[in-house]
Write a structure and sequence with these properties.
Layout lengths: L1 H17 L3 E9 L6 E4 L4 E10 L3 E10 L5 E6 L5 E10 L12 H22 L1
Antiparallel strand pairs: 1-2, 1-4, 3-4, 3-6, 5-6
Subcellular location: Cell membrane
Membrane topology: Lipid-anchor; GPI-anchor
Family: Belongs to the SPACA4/bouncer family.
Length: about 130
């Protein structure tokens, strides 16, 4: 009888762990640079992507888990005398990794491609 109860508990635990929402996390990114990791949301949270402007000019990004009550809102971080440091809009989604990791910026892709091709040509000439 205890084996049956233990088996039911183990299956229930695995099922509960499988329900956790996985999201990309980036505490603060500037422009298209946002270094991400993965995190597991707590109950009552969803994945979010935040995009906004710092000092009304510089594009910023954040990603991670957010309580559902804070989803789809614009947040201002004020400084002294009501001057705003940044404004960010946080948009939520509810599927695993739905707040996608950023792509490499286009200016980075060309040098990487050229370096790879150059290394390949050098290696092929060395081996022949």
């Amino acid at each position: 009888m205890s084996r049956i109860i233990l088996g039911i508990f183990a299956v229930g635990l695995l099922f509960a762990v499988g329900q956790a929402l996985q999201c990309y996390k980036c505490d603060f990114g500037i422009g298209s640079l946002c270094i991400t990791t993965k995190e597991t949301c707590k109950e009552g949270e969803q994945c979010y992507s935040g995009e906004g402007k710092a000092a009304h000019v510089v594009p910023i990004k954040t990603k991670g888990c957010l309580p559902i009550a804070e989803c789809n809102k614009v947040t201002d971080l004020p400084l002294i005398d009501n001057a705003t440091i940044y404004t960010i809009e946080k948009t939520c989604c509810s599927e695993d990794l739905c707040n996608s990791a950023p792509n490499l910026p286009a200016p980075v892709l060309l040098p990487l491609t050229m370096a790879t091709l150059s290394a390949s040509l050098l290696m092929s000439r060395t081996l022949v």
